[in-house]
């Protein structure tokens, strides 16, 4: 089930909200857990067993860590948690990738498993690990209530797209939280603006990308429009979902962390990754990079740490070699910026450098193979004899110019500053109602409505 669907907006969400506020406080976590499992199992009920098993086992491992007096036993239960989470993730997400590479390397013919990837497994696996690792470190209390623990793991607002919520971020709110009318209003407002970003901008740009893929009349300009379109598409798709998750969380009394901070305004690649998918970057920093020694090691080990972290960042996004190379490309750029101070470059040059890097990187990210990645990036620099421009390119440019302009403006802080400039509740309500109507009309019309991060 997608947030951007009629079923969710007009059936599922009203039932969840009404039931939540009618029930006694003690039953609210159980209600959220039960309805989150319904949400998760809507499209693939069989795979709910994987989630339930992961919840049950890691709840036990967390208790084992908390109750153990000896460090050796604590470490033992932590290792069991890592094996459970990474084992499920590795099996469902990377087994076929491993088989494909074994077949290619050793000229074998092992049959692919063709497993269905459980929705949200990349996100909830990392959330569970943040809990058991923090309990092991003494930074979080052991959760003995399996209902509360299950609610944390599968809470539907952030289950399929993040932000990656650490247990310590919501530990207190799982036990005691409240929601005011103002929280409800602001949460609904954030949700609807995220819905608008997803349906009115990301989906339209997604259509443009599909048109580009199907076109036999590609040109240099078309390749660059595709690159720009995909950068904006993935931003509004993912940040829109993050906005919706944060807004829904606030309705139910949870304060989820922010996940995006206008990344296209960055003046360096390092700054870009401080602004893009911030919860994932923070997770890899705190649970992988720093435990490996971070930068407080020899240069050789530090180089290893950077490459290691970014290789796994790429693999987290998908089981394909283009994702691995995508991650390693950013590792190389971040290492380069350690030796070349790009912040001293003129503002326009460093900003252009970042946008250029991001354009090529996301073209690689969206490719279905290394061959397609090479072809797309080659087209962006005029290889393959592509013409400068075609009539088809100009037609689609005119057709989608408004969406591109809206996306470019929406990727800056200007709309938010304008919205917060004055407190006008009536106008605010009118804008929210208009957004809901426009989004509903688009969904009823049966418009293009995928969600990119279902791949991950």
Give the uncertain stretches in residue-range form. none
Which outline best applies? globular
Structural class: mainly alpha
Mean pLDDT across residues: 92
What is the succession of H and E elements? HHHHHHHHHHHHHHHHHH
Q: Strand percentage, roughly?
A: under 5%
Percent range of helical residues: over 70%
Number of strands: 0
Number of domains: 2
Largest sheet, strands/sense/barrel: none
- End-to-end distance: 16 Å
Taking all Cα atoms into account, the compactness measure Rg is: 23 Å
Number of helices: 18
Folded structure, characterized:
By secondary structure, the protein is mainly α. It has 2 domains: 6-177, no CATH class; 183-455, no CATH class. It is built from 18 helices and no strands. The protein has helices at residues 6-22, 28-41, 48-67, 71-106, 121-137, 146-154, 167-175, 181-214, 220-251, 269-275, 278-289, 299-317, 321-339, 347-366, 370-380, 391-410, 414-420, 425-444. Helix 2 (28-41) crosses helix 6, helix 4 runs antiparallel to helix 5 (121-137) and helix 9 (220-251) crosses helix 15 (370-380). It is globular. It starts with 5 loop residues before the first helix and ends in a 12-residue tail after the last helix. The model has no long low-confidence stretch (mean pLDDT 92).
Ordered list of secondary-structure elements with their pairings:
Elements: H1 6-22, H2 28-41, H3 48-67, H4 71-106, H5 121-137, H6 146-154, H7 167-175, H8 181-214, H9 220-251, H10 269-275, H11 278-289, H12 299-317, H13 321-339, H14 347-366, H15 370-380, H16 391-410, H17 414-420, H18 425-444
């Amino acid at each position: 089930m997608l947030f951007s669907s009629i079923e969710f907006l007009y059936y599922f969400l009203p039932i969840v909200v009404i039931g939540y506020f009618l029930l006694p406080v003690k039953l609210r976590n159980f209600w959220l857990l039960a309805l989150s499992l319904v949400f998760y199992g809507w499209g693939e009920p069989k795979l709910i067993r994987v989630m339930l098993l992961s919840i049950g086992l890691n709840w036990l491992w967390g208790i084992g860590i908390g109750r153990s007096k000896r460090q050796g036993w604590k470490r033992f239960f932590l290792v069991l948690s890592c094996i459970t989470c990474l084992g499920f993730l590795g099996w469902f997400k990377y087994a076929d990738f491993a088989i494909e590479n074994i077949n290619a390397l050793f000229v074998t013919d092992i049959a692919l498993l063709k497993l269905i990837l459980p929705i949200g497994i990349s996100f909830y696996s990392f959330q569970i690990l943040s809990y058991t690792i923090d309990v092991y470190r003494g930074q979080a209390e052991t959760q003995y209530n399996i209902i509360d623990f299950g609610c944390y793991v599968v809470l539907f607002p952030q289950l399929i797209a993040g932000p990656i919520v650490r247990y310590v971020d919501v530990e207190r709110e799982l036990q005691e939280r409240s929601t005011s009318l103002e929280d409800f209003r602001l949460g609904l407002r954030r949700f609807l603006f995220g819905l608008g970003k997803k349906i009115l901008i990301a989906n339209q740009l997604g259509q443009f990308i599909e048109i580009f893929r199907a076109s036999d009349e590609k040109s240099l300009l078309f390749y660059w429009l595709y690159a720009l379109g995909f950068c904006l598409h993935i931003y509004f798709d993912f940040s829109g979902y993050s906005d919706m998750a944060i807004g829904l969380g606030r309705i139910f009394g949870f304060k989820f962390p922010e996940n995006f901070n206008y990344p296209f305004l960055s003046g360096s690649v390092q700054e870009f990754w401080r602004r893009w998918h911030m919860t994932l970057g923070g997770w890899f920093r705190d649970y992988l990079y720093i435990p490996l020694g971070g930068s407080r090691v020899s240069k050789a080990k530090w180089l290893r740490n950077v490459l290691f972290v970014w290789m796994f960042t790429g693999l987290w996004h998908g089981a394909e070699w283009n994702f691995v190379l995508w991650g390693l490309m950013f590792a190389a750029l971040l290492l380069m910026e350690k030796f070349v101070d790009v912040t001293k470059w003129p503002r326009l040059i460093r900003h252009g450098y970042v946008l250029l890097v991001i354009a090529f990187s996301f073209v690689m990210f969206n490719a279905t193979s290394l061959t397609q990645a090479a072809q797309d990036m080659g087209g962006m620099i005029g290889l393959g004899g592509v013409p400068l421009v075609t009539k088809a390119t100009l037609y689609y440019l005119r057709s989608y110019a408004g969406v591109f302009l809206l996306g470019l403006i929406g990727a800056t802080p200007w709309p938010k500053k304008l919205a917060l400039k004055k407190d006008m509740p009536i106008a605010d309500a009118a804008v929210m109602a208009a957004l809901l109507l426009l989004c509903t009309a688009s969904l009823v019309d049966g418009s293009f409505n995928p969600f990119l991060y279902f791949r991950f």
